[in-house]
Amino acid sequence: MITEPRIIPTPYVTKPGAIRTSTGKTIRTDEMIINMGPQHPSTHGVLRLEIVVDGEIIVDVIPHIGYLHRCFEKHAEHMTNYQQVIPYCDRMDYVASMNNDWGFALAVERMLKIEVPPRVEYLRVIMAELQRIASHLVAVGTFGIDMGAFTPFLWTFRDREKILDLFEMTCGARLLYNYIWIGGLSHDVPPGFVEKAKEFCSYFGPKLKEFNDVLTYNEIFVRRTANVGVLPPDVAVNFACSGPMLRGSGVNFDLRRDDPYGVYDKFEWEVQVGKGEFGKVGDVWDRFIVKVREMEQSVKIIEQAVAALPEGNVQAAIPKRIRPDAGSEAYVRTESPRGELGFYVVSDGSASPFRVKARGPAFVNLSVLPEISRGCMIADLVAIVGSADIVLGEVDR
Amino acid sequence: MTSQEILDTLKSLCGDAVLDAKLDVLQPWISVEPLKLAVVAKALREDPRLDFDFVMCMSGMDHNNGTLGAVYHLYSMTQKHKIVIKAIVKNEDARVASTAAIWGGAEWHEREAYDMFGIVFEGHPDLRRILLPDDYPGHPLRKDFVVPEYYNGMKVPY
Predict the structure, then answer these.
(1) Which one of A64, A113, A373, B83 has the lowest number of neighbouring Cβ atoms within 10 Å?
(2) Nearest to A396 among B106, B107, B131 (CB)
(3) What tens-digit pLDDT sequence spans chain B (158 residues)?
(4) Peptide bond before residue A38 is cis, with ω within 30 degrees of 0
(5) A368 contacts B108? CB cut-off 8 A
(6) What domains are defined for chain B?
(7) Best interface-test mutation with B: which of A234, A359, A372, A397 has the largest number of B CBs within 10 A?
(8) Listed residue (A355, A159, A79) closest to B64, CA to CA
(9) Chain B residues with CB inside 8 Å of A363's CB?
(10) ipTM higher than threshold 0.95
(11) What domain count does chain A have?
(12) Are A331 and B130 within 8 A, CB to CB?
């Protein structure tokens, strides 16, 4: 374990064609196309990467997506009711369903100008932050596997199970909840939920420290991730990256604070950014550590929200048939674990949406992949894809 | 900046490209000449007062009245203001100037709009279908799209 930060030099030459024999002679290399995926353990789903390589060095990456396209937008237009879209939102980013539900519900609520009861706001924050921890646990755990560390993966899934138990006792489902509805929640939390949530918060803090000791500051892991796949802040903004991908590059921007929704302004918490502790700002390790530190912050938010949870109704008074005014439209963005999750909803005055566009953070974050992986080794591409934390269900929708 | 100031600044920079605007709605929008969108985008990106550097979202639209739309939701990380830019084109002549060279984040969204609506983005570096197979017939999010009975000889089940 390393205790003090230090800079690790870039371990290899990243110039295509500059391969030398041991006698010092430069040799000519040919470009070659390698296909990675769609069925490949490190692509976290069905992503196909067409890689142009020169020896071991990547010249270009062409991502091919769409293998998991389930026509979310087309389905949403053909529902007979706005509420019916929510289960489809669940299935977009299936690792963070609660956040997806909230995004869509919030968009429709803004169109209808509905205020939801305070208990709903607090419960939504609790659910979203629990989901953020669960999602980040999957992200960092599977990223460990990509880097060859198996134990942390088992640990993170053990802790994620506790969160899934909480969700299960709330709404009966473990993955796709359909819990956050337009105007409120499907039902109140059961008795004993608050105690269990508190119990989880006190349980999880020490476990995170254990995780950091075994993986985050592990020398092998740091050498594998520092200075790899550097995403400069200006490129991150230009490619509209968001979430840990953007903050890993040192851009201090979080929608929970900068485009407020819910009751996040009532809690004490900090936005985490990458600082380049072991290499350049915006490398794979920075994106990783932002996720780990965000989990700590989420625990802080949950503790405060649970302590201040008000009593009251969990459904606002909304019309039975939701019909926003004809021609009204709203683009509402929320901070999902992967970044800016936006829903652009347009109404024509009927009971079903005229158009729904889902702006998935993973979709946009993936589009920067070719920019940051040119000049890397093939093995580093695995690290970069893992650190981007994509969920193909959301990329393809 | 308020949306009125954004509109005024944009008019002073490229007045002939601005067609219409609606500022008294939930999210104010400005409609611009589709083939001059790249010029407008350059002005929006490069003028220090506007400085729209972040494409929150870019969506295709079918208005179901013979027109398609490309809708850009823009945000400025430095100025902290938002605006919506719309380019509305006719179904039979759906050509919009691409902004992918100015905002990298718009590149995949524009591909998606091409895929789903058949809007052709002129000057796009890599305008291919993105979510659907290359041989898919038609553009399924258009309102006049009819689901084909057969796809590559296979019966579509519903």
Answers:
(1) A113
(2) B131
(3) 888 888 888 888 887 888 888 888 888 889 998 998 888 998 888 888 888 989 999 999 998 888 999 999 999 988 888 899 999 999 888 899 999 889 988 999 999 999 999 899 988 888 888 998 888 888 888 888 888 888 888 888 76
(4) yes
(5) no
(6) 3-155 (3.30.460.80)
(7) A359
(8) A355
(9) 108
(10) no
(11) 1
(12) no
